[in-house]
Amino acid sequence: MSALRHHTPPGPPRSNRAQEPEEESYNIIPIHKLLADQPSLRYPKVRAAAATLRTIGNLRKPPYAQWHPSMDLLDWLALFFGLQKDNVRNQQEHIVFHLANAQMLLTLPPDNIDTLDATVLRRFRRKLLKNYTNWCSYLNKKSNIWIPNQSSADLRRELLYASLNLFIGGEAANLRFMPECICYIFHNKAMELKKILEDYIDKNTGQPMVPSFLSDNVFLNCVVKPIYETINEEVERLKLFLQFSIIIAWEDKKYPWEALADRSSLLDAGMQYSLVSRETMWLGVRMFLKSAIAAGWIIVFGVFYGRIWSQKNSDGRWSDEARRRIVNFLEVALVFVLPELLALALFIIPRIRNFLENSNWRIFYLLSWWFQSRSFVGRGLREWLFDNIKYTLFWVLVLATKFSFSYFLQIKPMIKPSRQLVDLKNVTYEWHEFFKNSNRFAVGLLWLPMVLIYLMDLQIWYSIYSSFVGAAVGLFAHLGEIRNIQQLKLRFQFFGSAIQFNLMPEEKLLNARGTLKIKFKDAIYRLKLRYGLGRPYTKLEEEDIISDQELELLELPQNSWNVRVIRWPCFLLCNELLLALSQAKDLMCKNEHRRCVIIEAYDSVKHLLLEIIKINTEEHSIITIEKFTKTFNMIAFPHFHTKLIKLVELLNKPKKDLNRVVNTLQALYEIAMRDFFKEKRSTEQLREDGLATRDPTAMVWLLFQNAIELPDA
């Protein structure tokens, strides 16, 4: 507590806090420049969250520090509690993103999209401080979070308490691994924040309450650092047992307790008492009580067992009274096993155990105290029933194998030679005979290797079964199937079919009323679909999950057009073709997906044109000539791309206008001849290369007039 109540005289104004926030850099969102032309600020939910941080209102300004109108609530907290500047900047963007995402997930959007919904902030604070609330309930302490009603000022308190918790986590460094310590710090700092908000008057100074500070990093230096140093000292002191042993051994006595007769060693040993915590003492009390109760049960069982035989001996037979005493003995045994039955029930039904551990009722605490120490961290984390069953079955299998092996292959084969050795008479030993006229020592030597193996083979069986179980878990979890980037690339060949398989409804994949044979075939078919070795049962015609057009974007297209590369799903390629068009001069093939989409587009367009142009025509021969990057200038791609889109749209219409198709093809030819060539070519040169009609009287606008033959749908 002393580390939290640091009462020192307030220092001078801090110069680095006087810097205008507008001059500060930012990671993603310019918190202090809400009017900046920045992409993230175009979203209303981001603007609403950022604006919420600016609702200072009538809060009392921090003394001894320069305040700027552009500062927000988090700057206000930082000035009052002496937080690190970088911590404040990080948490500002962190909180804005949290609130913006929560606003986006609202079922019903708020009436004013530029205002943060009150429920968003309230849920954010409750979720963030849930652990602190549980900690207060665990220790039966009253929470220091005080929000009287649901006004706008109280929404500001919601944000202040949540921000204070995040600030403490950011300042705490390695103390974050001690959740109870974080709750303890927040508990005290929340009380200080409550007094500041309520304008509490300090009785010593007669002035409004102000946390004492000296510099910007006062929280780190005066709260976090002292706690860390205290913990570090305790860790160092936990090493004595070594110190204690050396002190006792230094007295050079035969037994350790003889050294305690010396006053100095007794004093040094007594100094270690401070390491015994309250929990350690209660652990000792519990162990002592368990031992005492166990001794008591031994006496009880002995008494009831003796009563049975005394009654039987006095009656000379198993009389009704003797049988009644047997029943009494069994009743006592039932009382004895009741705690074990409770422990077994808690093991079988872990939900009950988790409920008991998470509950703060005293009666539940007393029930659970007998089995284990009470702890806030890690409570209610018991394994579920299925995990317990798997764990139990594993050890049942290991132990059953071990005992079966030991009995049938170790113990039983030793019985016959042991008997034969015991029955040997008049044996003369070359060494000392430990047992006169007996071979028991030889029998012991015979059994010694077997006993040693019996004691250690459990570890061997455990290693064997754990390797099999680990291999099975890795197999079903697909661990190690993809070991390098090449194998990862190969997996994308099955990407489309795997996505389609996982998005299909269950009734589309399985025959629910089929026989066992049909269900087995369905299971095999599902595996083939999952790994891209089969085709889906039927193509989805309904739009339960995604539309047919979206499904086509997810599918891996069939390579029926003689495309020379893997045809990736369209959604995976995204805008790679447009990027390639805009960077056609030098960056076309530096990206694998971009290279594939360029070649796929080229081969697909070539296939399309050859499909709609009649074979054995001059137009058909022009398309088949392979002189692309060597002959053409690629800066004309965007124009060609626009015309190709128009051509595809015309071909996809229910009623196809043949004249417009011809006009579009002529326009494509004109762009190719006029813009694509790196060097201007005459008509004669085009004819020599086979890129123009050989009829000298034919005009460009007559091309494709009689060469188009559209295929069916």
UniProtKB/TrEMBL annotation:
<dbReference type="Pfam" id="PF25968">
    <property type="entry name" value="CALS1"/>
</dbReference>
<dbReference type="InterPro" id="IPR026899">
    <property type="entry name" value="FKS1-like_dom1"/>
</dbReference>
<dbReference type="InterPro" id="IPR058851">
    <property type="entry name" value="CALS1_helical"/>
</dbReference>
<keyword id="KW-1133">Transmembrane helix</keyword>
<keyword id="KW-0472">Membrane</keyword>
<feature type="region of interest" description="Disordered">
    <location>
        <begin position="1"/>
        <end position="22"/>
    </location>
</feature>
<keyword id="KW-0812">Transmembrane</keyword>
<feature type="transmembrane region" description="Helical">
    <location>
        <begin position="326"/>
        <end position="349"/>
    </location>
</feature>
<feature type="domain" description="1,3-beta-glucan synthase component FKS1-like">
    <location>
        <begin position="156"/>
        <end position="253"/>
    </location>
</feature>
<protein>
    <recommendedName>
        <fullName>1,3-beta-glucan synthase component FKS1-like domain-containing protein</fullName>
    </recommendedName>
</protein>
<feature type="transmembrane region" description="Helical">
    <location>
        <begin position="287"/>
        <end position="306"/>
    </location>
</feature>
<feature type="transmembrane region" description="Helical">
    <location>
        <begin position="439"/>
        <end position="456"/>
    </location>
</feature>
<feature type="transmembrane region" description="Helical">
    <location>
        <begin position="389"/>
        <end position="409"/>
    </location>
</feature>
<dbReference type="Pfam" id="PF14288">
    <property type="entry name" value="FKS1_dom1"/>
</dbReference>
